[in-house]
Amino acid sequence: MSGGPSTQPALSFELRLPGHSLAPALARACVDGLAGVCAPERLAAARLIVSELVTNAVIHASKGLPQSVVVELSAGEAGIAGVVRDEGPPFEARAELPDRGSIGGFGLHIVDRTATEWGITHQVGNAVWFKV
Question: What are the pLDDT digits (tens) for 42-53?
């Protein structure tokens, strides 16, 4: 992720995680490393979004196959921007609430309600980007 000279982030990193059940917790811990770089409410929002997106990648993209999930984050005074990439098949972005009584399916709805902007690109796998 890049920006012009006036939008240069204070901190930027990329994290490659195994497509494993521990990936969401590891991703949340890395987001916590941005403490002090941005406002606490933005940090909390990014932590929730990254957790949901990594969880979705592990559950839906891998379909039981080992793969990696890549998290890219940039943080500064203007906020946090991120991308979560996986190698899974393309999917349709639906941020609606799931049916009443559903156990799962809230991930993209949470992202939609929490991020100031977000979207999905499908080049090789999926890349879900967000800003807070």
Answer: 999 999 999 999
Q: Which ranges of the chain does DSSP label H, i.e. alpha helix?
A: 23-32, 40-56, 107-114
pTM beyond 0.90, yes or no:
no
Task: Tell me what the mean pLDDT of segment 64-76 comes to.
Answer: 85
Q: How far apart are CA 85 and CA 54, in angstroms?
A: 9
Q: How far is it, in rounded angstroms, from Cα 55 to Cα 74?
A: 20
Q: Are 67 and 86 in contact (CB under 8 A)?
A: yes
Label residue 81 exposed, middle or buried (CB < 10 Å: 0-12, 13-18, 19+): buried
Non-local (6+) Cβ contacts of 20 within 8 A are 58
Q: Cβ contacts of residue 4 below 8 Å, gap of 6+?
A: none
